[in-house]
Amino acid sequence: MNCRIKNIKHYTIFDSAFIVVLVTMALLFSPYNSYADKPPENEWVVVIDAGHGGKDPGAEGKRSKEKDITLAIALKTGKYIEELLDDVKVIYTRKEDKFIELYKRAEIANKAKADLFISIHCNGFRDTRIRGSETFVMGIHKNQGNLEVAMKENSVITLEEDYTTRYQGYDPSSSESFIIFSLMQNIYLEQSLNFANYIQDQFRNRIGLTDRGVKQAGIIVLWQTTMPSVLVETGFITNSQQERFLLSDQGQDYVASAIFRAFRDYKSAIDQKSDFSTVARDVNSNDNQIWFMVQLATSSAKKEQLPDQYLSTGEITEIISGKYFKYATGKFRSYAEAAQKRKEVQPEFPDAFVIAVRNLKIIPLQEAIEKTENK
Question: Which of 15, 85, 176, 354 has the fewest Cβ atoms within 10 angstroms?
Fold first, then answer.
């Protein structure tokens, strides 16, 4: 300290610059920086969630713990995306062996306004002969097996403080509680199912994993997200052969590459499927009313003509979002009315989905539903 006081004239410029550098570095490497910054509107945001962690080991094999394998695959998946897709921002719920509550994982994705949430897991079962991969979306379970997987994944909430209040009285040991919970509506079900199918296709066709299919179940970490979301069970580490595969660097690379390819194809389908022309109506950019609409497609270029297929749905609204032009039909004050409209256009537009718009900007759907319901 004394040395700097004596030489203050020589150090003033250096100290100012040094402080700026320190502050900048602190902001850049802040633990909150990974998801607090709002990305450009034309950029995709993907949240990759390595399941379990810290005091929660997840499933256990003879030589492995689920939390370690999921972290390795999550980091490899993110690296593939970061290196090969320059218009995608990757956010991780954890990058180390750390316990993170389920609600916080969803919170990270929601705060980042993510376009997609991918939760990576490994399976375990008492019968060590069982093997294969499966991908879950939030929905109603169809059989006992789906119920067991969801109850296993949800049981981690017992490690959290005050979980009965935070998760609306959900009891992870009660099948009745689970059934009520699983009936909660997943407004992103179709998009989630589409992405889940891309994943299973990659696992089956490129890696040769046994395909256990795309399934629905009431999984908490998916329930609390406000975007298309999936939970990927990459394999059974209670099966010795799959455990060896998932423990190996090559096996983890294969799985990460498959998830990356699935995301790339899903993204490409959404970005490119709207290659159509339109005559569009703009909603009032100063309209503070929340409107529910049905998005039909997205285009990277503004179009001037519209085929009869689109005109038949009614008046079309053009919404500019970054470098993309999004086209929607209908204008409703309630989500229920928009959902009914989506059903009507579904035969012609199977991937159509409900969006919420205010001031000519798309806002989070769940937020819009809550605000309109509270009026």
Answer: 176
